[in-house]
Amino acid sequence: MRPARSLLVVVATILAFSVLAPTVSATPHQDFHLDKTCASDVLCTLLDSNFKPFRPGTHVTYVTDWPNGLTYPTIKVRHGSTTGICDWNHPHGSVFAKCTFSQGTGVLTGFHLVVDVTVTGDPGDPASIWHWDGRYWFGPQHGHR
To answer: Is the pTM of this model over 0.85?
Structure first.
């Protein structure tokens, strides 16, 4: 009878830990939209976003690698940040760039975002409004570079 009780304790313990263990599956993909203005090639300010942590007034800062047509945007929010890569090698059509974020910290841990970048107005005019449209989700962290 003792081995059966020991087995029951082991099974109960495994079940308890499986319920408490964090899930590694990704959340469902959600539509994403963001509008921003850019004072320069290295600093933009969010006007609006449907993703709650990205509030109006939040800054997007960029490190540029123009010879290769790449920029590395970072968005810092309260209790977290995320950095991605934007590929500006899209010379045709209305999409100027495609940006991908696949890592984050704090409240943005596991954050993934894939967007197309378009603009309303002249891309060289600081009054122009830049738009990011795509999908976001939360899932396991992966390096993106």
So the answer is: no
